[in-house]
Specification:
8 helices, 22% helix, globular, seven-stranded antiparallel β-sheet, alpha+beta, 377 residues
C-alpha cells in the first residue's frame, strides 16, 4: 500500500533526536517535496521487525519509511545504524499538522497531474482503435510513441481523427503533462519507468505493460509503460469535452442495439425516468471516493460538506447516461454546461432545475471564494 504524503496521517516519531513522520506504507520518492528527505527503515534477518538501519531505498527487510524535513545521513553513506535512536509516539499527524507543530512552512503538492494505475476495464484506452467510428467516439486526439534508446527519451507524435482535436489548448496542457512526468514521473529515464511498472502491479494491462491514467477537466492521458527495453511506451490522449458531446450524438462504444435504444429513450419525455445522484471526491486519483444512490438534496449536502479540493456532483439517468453538473477542480468551482450538449439531458426539466439550484448554491457562498460559471473564468 502506498502513502499519499499530502493527505494521509503518519505516526509521530523521533530519529537521531530529530522529529520525523513514520508510516508502514510505501512512499513514492517522486512525491517527496523539495528540501525534504525520505528513507526506509530496515530490520535484520535475526530481528526483521526491529528497525536497525536507515537507508535511502530498500526493497527487502523494509519495516517502514520516515519523512524528514532535514537530512538524516550523508549521501555517500549507504546505511546508517539506528541502534536506540528511533522512538515512536502515539500521536497521529498529517504533513500540515506536523509542520504546524514544529513551526515550519508546509510544502504544497508540486504535482499538477496525478497518475493512478489503470483498471482492467480501461485497457482498451492504451491502444489504437481499429474502427474509425470508435476512434471518433472516443475523441482520440493522438498518441505519442516513446523509447529510451541510448539513454535519451525519443518520441514521435501520431495524430488521430485528422488531427482536428489537436488544438493549441491541448498542446499546452499536453506539454505540461509530459514535462512534469520527465521531472518526477515515469518519463525521467528507463530506470524510473521500470520502477513505476514494478511498483504498481495492479495497473498491468498486458505482458510487460503497465497503464497509468491522469485526467484534467478537459483531457484524459493514458500512459502505457513497458519493462521491455526492445518495446515502445505510449501516451494516448483523449478530449473529454468532445466525448461528452458525442454521448448525445453517437452510439456509445460497447453498447448493444438494446443498450443504444435505452440511451435514446433517456431523451424521450414520454417515458418515466430514474435519477441516481452521486458525489465524487479526490477525482482522478488513486484515492478517489464515489458515493451514489443519493437524492439530489442529499448529494448537495454531501458535496457542500466535503472540504475536498477536487470533487464533482452529478447524476446517472435511467442507469445508462451520466453527466457531472457541479465541479470543483484546480482552485475553481462552477456549474458545468455539458448537460446542455447531451441529447439525454438537454431537454430534461429535472436537470435544468438541479443546475439552477447549484448556481444558487454558488451564488450564496462567500464572494471571496474562487468560482466560475460554465467553466469560464
Amino acid at each position: 500500500m502506498r502513502c499519499n504524503i499530502y493527505k494521509d496521517q503518519f505516526q509521530s516519531a523521533e530519529l537521531f533526536g530529530k522529529p520525523v513522520l513514520y508510516t508502514e506504507k510505501q512512499i513514492q520518492r517522486e512525491d517527496v517535496p523539495e528540501g525534504w528527505y525520505c528513507y526506509d527503515l530496515t530490520g535484520t534477518d535475526r530481528e526483521p521487525d526491529k528497525p536497525a538501519a536507515l537507508e535511502d531505498r530498500m526493497p527487502w527487510n523494509r519495516i517502514g519509511s520516515v519523512l524528514s524535513p532535514v537530512s538524516l545521513k550523508r549521501k555517500t553513506t549507504l546505511a546508517r545504524q539506528i541502534k536506540n535512536s528511533f522512538h515512536l509516539h502515539e500521536e497521529l499527524l498529517d504533513l500540515a499538522g506536523f509542520c504546524e507543530k514544529n513551526r515550519m512552512s508546509c510544502p504544497q503538492d508540486p504535482r499538477k497531474f496525478i497518475l493512478r494505475p489503470a483498471s482492467h476495464e480501461e485497457a482498451g484506452l492504451f491502444y489504437s482503435q481499429m474502427d474509425r467510428e470508435e476512434d471518433t467516439a472516443a475523441a482520440t486526439v493522438g498518441h505519442l510513441r516513446m523509447d529510451f534508446g541510448g539513454g535519451r527519451l525519443h518520441h514521435s507524435w501520431w495524430p488521430h481523427n485528422d488531427d482536428r482535436f489537436n488544438t493549441p489548448e491541448f498542446k499546452a496542457v499536453f506539454q505540461e503533462f509530459v514535462d512534469e512526468l520527465r521531472i518526477r514521473g515515469p518519463l525521467q529515464n528507463d530506470a524510473a519507468m521500470r520502477r513505476w511498472c514494478y511498483g504498481y502491479p495492479e495497473g498491468e494491462i498486458g505482458r510487460d505493460h503497465v497503464g497509468f491514467v491522469a485526467e484534467t477537466e478537459d483531457y484524459r492521458f493514458c500512459l502505457r509503460c513497458t519493462t521491455d527495453r526492445s518495446d515502445h511506451s505510449y501516451i494516448y490522449c483523449y478530449d473529454l469535452n468532445q466525448q461528452r458531446m458525442a454521448m448525445g450524438q453517437t452510439p456509445q462504444m460497447g453498447l448493444t442495439e438494446q443498450g443504444q435504444q435505452r440511451l435514446k429513450d433517456t431523451a424521450d419525455p414520454r417515458f418515466p425516468h430514474s435519477y441516481n445522484w452521486y458525489v465524487m471526491e479526490s477525482c482522478n486519483t488513486a484515492y478517489a471516493a464515489f458515493t451514489d444512490g443519493l437524492s439530489l438534496e442529499d448529494a448537495i449536502q454531501r458535496y457542500a460538506a466535503s472540504e475536498n479540493e477536487s470533487k464533482r456532483l452529478g447524476v446517472t439517468k435511467d442507469d445508462i447516461a451520466a453527466v457531472d453538473l457541479l465541479i470543483r477542480h484546480d482552485g475553481r468551482e462552477w456549474v458545468s454546461e455539458d448537460w446542455t450538449k447531451s441529447e439525454s439531458f438537454a431537454q430534461d426539466s429535472t436537470i435544468a432545475d438541479a443546475a439552477a439550484k447549484m448556481r444558487q448554491l454558488l451564488e450564496d457562498q462567500a464572494p471571496n471564494q474562487s468560482m466560475t460559471m460554465g467553466g469560464m473564468t
